[in-house]
Peroxisomal trans-2-enoyl-CoA reductase
Amino acid sequence: MTDEIRRGLPAPPALGAAALPSGTYEGQVVLVTGGGTGLGKAIAAEFARLGADLVIASRRAEQLMAAREELAAVPGAGRVTAAVCDIRDPERVAEVFDAAQAASGLPDVLVNNAAANFPSPAEDLSPNAWRAVVDITLTGTWFMTREFGRRHLAAGTGGSIVNIGASYAWTGGPGFAHSAAAKAGVKSLVETLAVEWGPYGIQVNGLVPGLFPHADMTEDIRGGLERAAPGAADARQPALRVGAPRELGWAATFLASPYARFVTGHTLVVDGANWQRRSVAGPEVVPVRTQLGRGPFTPSP
């Protein structure tokens, strides 16, 4: 029997290509949480390339200031404002919107990208660990969304929200009970608020990334990839490749654009069909503790 020919999905256009017409976001203000690193910065870059004024928010001032310089250098970018913010604090969230309005105007687009996560067997999660992830990923997203919605409702203006989600909001996430529960809540906000705020011109969508390696990946995530498939992440994707961060940015700029005004309440998964992959014969079940290299469970005193 001859070997099958497997090509996978084509590579994306080169970095610097735009998915929408030049200037699509000129005169628009886009606020991205977690915009100082990783996928948040990649998303912000694609809005900048299309002419947006950016406001990037993050808890880490040093990374945020470096990202501001990098994003300001993107061809086509408008003004770039950096705001140090812990999105778990509603007063600080309000201050970030005040700063955005003072610098560029009320944000027209909000990208809720900031989140927290780390792998752990559910039985090992402490109350503080649970709260840390849920408070940032779900409650922080809600505080940002609420502030955006209330300001637009008061002003009588429309806008667009894009919540970054995760596919285990549908499937559950063994090893990530805290994050999966929080992301399920984020997905529910998309579907709820799209109906509540649609009459006022506010669209709400979700965007789920697959595997998009980038320089700012945490050691936990990078280590998990190596344990699962040392040096072979491409071969474990139906697309036979991983994603390029700019591909997620292109999806975000579309969802928030004038070309997607009738798309709301939808969560778009950009992962090369990886989350839908199933084996003809299911693989052997390996407990999460074993996958994470943990020993037998021992209750804390």
User: Anything to note?
Assistant: The chain is about 40% helix and 15% strand. The two ends are 60 Å apart (CA to CA). The first strand starts at residue 29 and ends at 33. The first helix runs from residue 38 to 49.
